[in-house]
Amino acid sequence: MHLPPLLQRRFVLVTGKGGVGKSTVSAVLARLSARAGRRTLVCELNTRERIPGLFGRPPVGGEVTRIGENLWSVNIQPDMAMEEYALMKLRFRTLYRFVFENPVVRNMVRIIPGVHHLLMMGKAFNHEREVEADGRPTWDTIIVDAPATGHGLTFFQLPRVIRDAVPAGNLHREAADMWALLTDPRRTAVHLVTLPEELPVRETLELHGRLTRDLGMPLGHLFVNMMPPPLFAPEQAELFARLPEPAPGTALHDLWATGRIRMGREALAGSYRRQLAGLAMPLVELPIMYTRDFGPEQIGALGDRLLEQSR
Fold first, then answer.
1. Is residue 92 very low, low, confident or very high in pLDDT (cuts 50, 70, 90)?
2. Is 131 within the bounds of a domain?
3. What is the number of other CB atoms lying within 10 angstroms of the CB of residue 187?
4. Could you give the CA distance from residue 176 to residue 164 in angstroms, rounded to a whole number?
5. pTM of the model
6. Cα dist from 230 to 134, 149, 222, 262, 264, whole Å
7. Hey, CA dihedral for 102, 159, 219, 16, is it positive or negative?
8. Cα–Cα distance between 110 and 98 in angstroms, integer?
9. Cα separation, 196 vs 276, whole angstroms
10. Within the chain, what is the greatest distance between any pair of CA atoms?
11. Residue 266 falls within a domain, yes or no?
12. The pLDDT of residue 91 is above 60
């Protein structure tokens, strides 16, 4: 399977307003990457897991776990990330326990703003630079289901803040390397997800400005999730628009009113889509999936729709 342009960078961040479908888009991208034969890791960040469930699997926790062919998942947790990083630097578990399992140190880590975000970013960053014995990267694609807009901006800019605040040493070098990855358009893409509704669109426009103007991060695609599919073909819609209102209280009137509401929703969604089209980003529409159970079948169908728009 040919890899679409939106998956040709290894480190992929997916963000947007809470509730717009970031995890769904992350799962769709992960499925396409895995189907293309790429070893793919999807990272969630200390959250109630959704990715494994979208592939019909139970939660995986903080350990990298295979959930499909060429596909792995992990829910990065700050405490585990801190232990892994400390062991990597200190080398000895006894020394780690002496330093980091000290209650005073643990409490300091909890109260210092941003440390948990930095630990989780560091864990994802370490996955990006993992290599096999022969020097090949362990992962061909790493997809990070990033925090929602407000926390996401803090999450993204924290390495730069640490780099600038700490003049030298291990922490400075790690933060500088993370920031270099986040701002490298050859390796990284930030995909935005929104809904065709007023508040998500407004927040997406603001997020786009912050990421480009303030952070200089390389943007990828803009996903407009849950677009209502057309109720009628264009010629049918014209005929329906000219229908006179049936007598109130009849079944025909109820059908007519339902159709008018649905067409109004389509028109409103289209107006928001046109607002988003002004951004300098390739735009992908993902339709509403009318189903009671949302899982692997729906992720596959959305992947097919994405491919149709990426050719």
1. very low
2. yes
3. 16
4. 9
5. 0.87
6. 52, 30, 21, 9, 11
7. positive
8. 17
9. 9
10. 81
11. no
12. no
Among candidate residues 9, 37, 12, 17, the one with its CA nearest the CA of residue 27: 12
Helix then strand count (H, E) for the chain reads 12, 8
Residue matched to tokens 């986040």? 182
Indicate the pLDDT class of residue 265, thresholds 50, 70 and 90: very high
**Residue 84 included in any domain:** yes
Name the residue with tokens 């390739």: 282
pLDDT score for 241: 86
- Across the beta sheet with 65-68, the strand order is 65-68, 71-76, 40-45, 141-145, 11-16, 188-194, 219-227, 283-287
Residue 70 backbone phi and psi in degrees, to 5: 60, 20
Domain extent for 112: 5-231+281-310
Q: Can you read off the two tokens belonging to residue 106? A: 């643990």
Q: What is the pLDDT of residues 98-155, one digit of tens each?
A: 444 555 445 544 544 456 677 788 888 889 999 999 999 999 999 999 988 877 888 8
Asked if residue 205 belongs to a domain, the reply is: yes
Total domain count for the chain?
A: 1
| End-to-end Cα distance, the chain | 12
> What's the Cα-to-Cα distance from 227 to each of 197, 218, 268, rounded to whole Å?
10, 25, 10
Q: Can you give the CATH number for the domain in which 18 is found?
A: 3.40.50.300
What ranges make up the beta strands (E) of the chain? 11-16, 40-45, 65-68, 71-76, 141-145, 188-194, 219-227, 283-287
Distance CA 161, CA 215 (A): 11
